[in-house]
From TrEMBL:
UniProt source species: Tepidimonas taiwanensis
Stretches assigned to the Isopropylmalate dehydrogenase-like domain: 2-355
The protein's name in its UniProt record: 3-isopropylmalate dehydrogenase
Gene name linked to the record: leuB
HAMAP family membership: LeuB_type1
TM spans (from-to): none
Cofactor: Mn(2+); Mg(2+)
Length: 359
């Protein structure tokens, strides 16, 4: 199994080191090769996604990605900024499904912005479509408004589009994920739309309903996005798997992340049609704490677990990592971002070492 390791910049290299430590400790037949990406690649070669890095990612079974976006590159033209690397990888690898679990570990319920009883035991999965929707729909641009109440005024416009195959494949990812979470069959998918207002999302709703015929064991419910935003903070445990488009998913996944109270704990996966995937923490490169050895490596370690589950067919090894993380939290070890009274404050490397010991 070939894994491309792309540490990135900011805290990326620090958190990736710990995930690699954990992967090595599993003694699996993994071939790991590292390449620079983002700010680190720009500094070395003048481009955030060098050809050699892209080639390594393409030929790997999976990519483990740290983070990119160090502020020192903020003044570069857009096409050279570190964030272009992740956008380029998504595009070149055809990564259309973004999976973001929001899990509230029993030891961390106090960190949530919601009451502990609302989030204790929370374990939901957001499946966000990543390559379509209003973010990429053409035409788009600025012009002089040709008609309407403001005809003649300067205006801007984007286009919301989804095709049947795009909706079908993301719906399948969601139904399969629901089954996988429930031992191979069952579970519930909530498809989030705005079918009452938008034709794109009436079509989305129709297509998801058709795909559901192949998954009769999985329950399907439809929910308008405004209601979903409300239910996520009112009764988040009512959800199991949420599937939605690019824009609604962008917003709802960040909302769900905050329910768990700790961005440093949240992994993510982005998959293509061949099951190849890019795995990364949900957070960015945290330039404010880079180089201090205090970043929480658990989101990256848990991303490595998702990689074993979704791209490398080793759910057993994934479960071992997840159990080790739970164990370390139960032992009271905390990086500063999740620290509270009565727990032991540790740094990035100490946290990684503890996970290895727990394994
Ligand atoms: P961020 O996620 O990097 O940081 C937000 C806050 O959370 C900061 O206070 C940071 O210190 C803290 N934080 C993040 N990860 C942490 C961890 N593992 N342990 C402890 N604390 C952690 O988001 P921000 O500040 O908006 O973005 C910083 C840069 O990262 C920007 O250039 C942004 O574009 C980029 N970014 C990159 C992403 C990626 O690589 N996929 C995703 C999101 C942002
Ligand atoms: Mg976002």
């Amino acid at each position: 199994m070939k894994v491309a390791i792309l540490p990135g910049d900011g805290i990326g290299p620090e958190i990736i080191d710990e995930a690699v430590k954990v992967l090595k400790a599993l003694n699996l037949p993994l071939e790991m090769a590292t390449a620079p990406v983002g700010g680190a690649a720009y500094a070395a070669s003048g481009h955030p996604l060098p050809d050699a890095t892209l080639a390594l990612a393409r030929e790997a079974d999976a990519v483990l990605f740290g983070a990119v976006g160090d502020w020192k590159y903020d003044t570069l033209p857009r096409h050279l900024r570190p964030e272009q690397a992740i956008l380029g990888l998504r595009k070149h690898l055809g990564l259309f499904a973004n999976l973001r679990p929001a899990i509230c570990y029993p030891q961390l319920t106090h960190a949530s912005s919601l009451k502990p009883e609302l989030v204790a035991g929370l374990d939901i999965l957001i499946v966000r479509e990543l390559t379509g929707d209003i973010y990429f729909g053409q035409p788009r641009g600025r012009r002089t408004a040709p008609d309407g109440a403001f005809a003649g005024a300067e205006e801007a416009f984007d286009t919301m589009r989804y095709s049947r195959p795009e909706i079908e494949r993301i719906a399948r990812v969601a139904f399969e994920a629901a089954r996988r979470r429930h031992g191979g069959r069952g579970g519930k998918v909530t498809s989030v739309d705005k079918a009452n207002v938008l034709e794109t999302f009436q079509f989305w709703k129709d297509v998801v309903t058709e795909v559901h015929r192949d998954y009769p064991d999985v329950e399907l419910e439809h929910m308008y996005v405004d209601n979903a935003a409300m239910q996520l903070v009112k009764a988040p445990k009512k959800f199991d798997v949420i599937v939605t488009g690019n824009m609604f998913g962008d917003i709802l996944s960040d909302e769900a992340a905050m329910l768990t109270g700790s961005i440093g704990m949240l992994p993510s996966a982005s998959l293509n049609e061949r099951g190849q995937g890019l795995y990364e923490p949900s957070h960015g490169s945290a330039p404010d704490i880079a180089g201090q050895g205090i970043a929480n490596p658990l989101a990256t370690i848990l991303s490595a677990a998702m990689m074993l589950r979704y791209s490398l067919q080793r759910p057993d090894a994934a479960a071992r990592i997840e159990a080790a993380v739970q164990r370390v939290l139960a032992d009271g070890l905390r990086t500063p971002d999740i620290h509270s009274d009565g727990t032991r404050r540790v740094g990035t490397a100490e946290m990684g070492d503890a996970v290895v010991r727990a394994l």
